[in-house]
Protein: Putative methyltransferase YcgJ
Organism: Poriferisphaera corsica
Amino acid sequence: MPKKLNMKERYSAKLYDLWASFYDHTFGQLVHSRQKHAVKQIRPKPGEFILDIGVGTGMTLPHYPKNCTVVGMDLSGGMLEKAAEKIQENNLTHCSLVQGDAMFPPFAPQSFDHIIITHTISVVSEPAKLLRWAETLIKPTGRIVILNHFQSANPFIGWWEHILNPFFLKIGWRSDLPLDECLEDSKLHTLYHYKISLFDFWQIVVLSPTNRHDPEDEHAPQSQSSALSDSQISPSIN
């Protein structure tokens, strides 16, 4: 385990070590189809490098094309053991794993073409700091794809998410994290974000260092919203 972890990261690492043995059969069953959706939004080209922050048990790894290089990073050694098993069982030779703290990722600036962050930004102690790090690690033409639950902009639902947050913190993540809090002090542009169904609890958010849209964005999923600027994201109620 990386040294000098703060209390939140240390607690999370130990908690997810416990989760590791049954994660795929519980929470993993809820998010599997969404992970596949999220990976598709990267649209990687052959030879590109992808960083998967919070790779967990490696459920996303089989969805990456084999003509790319994928590095999966997680703080939990227990989760990484499960991910390593998937790499071996599925012959995912294009994938490798690193144990690291998302608050201090052990990579040089612009090391990756794309970054994906699944179910991690509401786990870390400083979500905005994680995105600022990701912004430095990605190349200017790349994408950052986030799959996560964010606090609802609906005042009633958002209130309940805030009330229930102490319980969710005990099992490892925040239920009242608004998307705009994650984007504080960030220069990233929101290309689009959406839910795979109207009443889904999770969103897929696609960000980029530039406001350059891929022609395929015209056909991006529309169930939540598309091609929004950062200032157009509806604020959540705390």
Notes: The longest helix spans residues 27-40. Residues 223-238 have pLDDT under 50 and may be disordered.
